[in-house]
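**Polypeptide and fold**
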Amino acid sequence: MSEVKEQNKVLVRRIYEELWNRRDFAVAGDIFVDSAGVQKFMREFLTAFQDLHHTVEELIADGDRVAARFSAQGTHTGQWKEYLPTGNSIHYSGVTIVQIKDGKIVEHHTWWDRMEVIEQISG
């Protein structure tokens, strides 16, 4: 595999290991061209699921794009949207596809089943 593809995979892995798992938001600017929205979402979600932990299950690189398949688990200990803390455990999986230019993520899309999480904290 090319060196650039490997570097791109390392960059995407940092989202999960450094931002999500270590909560090191200072690195967001090193990873994303525009990190404000990412940081806002992550801070809000981690306020509700303070012990949330992501695991990268698979990374696939093709040109300037990387696909990441991940899973996450945690406990609902704070308010998320209109949902008050329940203490319920959650587990979900998802896929993120990013485009990288000049060593930073310029576009990203993540799919995960929010309804699955809502069902887990509601019942």
The chain has a mean pLDDT of 96. The two ends are 45 Å apart (CA to CA).
